[in-house]
């Protein structure tokens, strides 16, 4: 869960409304309907943050992005629209997946984007996926199991896999620090969007030979 600084809220809301209209989708608003102790509420990544990820060059038209806890589909739809990448979003909520699919139909990006109802712990990562995105969708205990799935997928189909963590929790950072398979490669500073919060960043990690 994120708590943006008050000085960035209004500009962020305006930008989010503009991008939703441009993409012909509706992804704004927090939804805690299916929140639990280990699976967190839906809260969309601000478009300003996604723009920074796009501008980083880490995701291109040749990438295949997997968004964990895809909610209403903002990340998958935006990143595909802006970079040309293929994108897959998974979520454990049927309601969220239905909403994401409605947004996808409205966006016209069905050829490059899809959504699936899935449990992250049990989900087998497709061999062509090489980019993973997380905005604190679940607890660190679930992330630990997901990272095992990432490693297993790499062994089955060795390739460079990049992982992106927006607004990372201390538990996430600690887990990644204890996971020698993953190398820290970059930090995208987002503090200009919501000043005064040290968690306003995207941490980038890689899994490769």
Please outline what is shown here.
It contains six helices and seven strands. It has 209 residues and is α/β, with parallel strands linked by helices.
What does this structure look like?
With 209 residues, the chain is an alpha/beta fold. The chain has a single domain (6-207), classed as Rossmann fold. Helices cover 37% and strands 19% of the residues. It has helices at residues 6-23, 47-56, 74-83, 94-107, 140-156, 170-177, and strands at 64-68, 86-91, 113-117, 131-134, 161-166, 183-189, 201-207. Strands 3-2-1-4-5-7-6 form a seven-stranded mixed β-sheet. α5 (140-156) links the parallel β4 (131-134) and β5. The longest helix is centred in the N-terminal third of the chain and has 18 residues, at 6-23. The chain is globular. The N and C termini lie far apart (33 Å). Mean pLDDT is 92; it is low at 3-7.
Could you tell me the CATH topology label.
Answer: Rossmann fold
CATH superfamily: Vaccinia Virus protein VP39
Uncertain spans: 3-7
SSE string, helices as H and strands as E: HHEHEHEEHEHEE
Biggest β-sheet: count, sense, barrel?
7 strands, mixed
* Total domain units: 1
Helix content range of the residues, please?
A: 25-40%
Strand share of the residues? 15-25%
Structural class: alpha/beta
CATH class: Alpha Beta
What does the average pLDDT come to?
A: 92
Overall shape: globular
Report the C-alpha radius of gyration, rounded.
Answer: 16 Å
- The CATH architecture designation is 3-Layer(aba) Sandwich
Strand order of the largest sheet: 3-2-1-4-5-7-6
